[in-house]
Amino acid sequence: MKPPKITICSKDYDDLYDLLENEKDESSFKLLRDELNRAHIVNFNELPSNVVRMNSTVKFTVQDNQECFSLKLVYPQEVKNTGTISILSPVGSALLGLSIGQEIEWPLIHGQKTVVHIDAIH
């Protein structure tokens, strides 16, 4: 599956690159760096409201089992036990810049993958 087009606002882009500059473990941010490198960057006020940005709450469905989730995309220091997901996680990196209705292949454990559908963004 070809990765979908993604759009990121310049503020999130700059903040995330700053985060990457200070991150010691390169393996934890390779996917995020790849996502940032392929993103279309726009000004904050030009980012449509249907696009996942930092601090968005994203409702999505895992296509394999039709399980629905609703998680807030946050910086690593803002992660809580429930309801949040770090931008440095493979899942968090994959969500950034997607819009409602898009699907993306999602990495699972042991090299497996699934497809996730973006249902809503708040």
Automatic annotation (TrEMBL):
Residues 4-42 form the Regulator of nucleoside diphosphate kinase N-terminal domain. The keyword Kinase applies. Pfam families: GreA_GreB (PF01272), Rnk_N (PF14760). GO terms for molecular function: kinase activity. It comes from the Bacteria. The keyword Kinase applies. This is Nucleoside diphosphate kinase regulator. The gene is rnk.
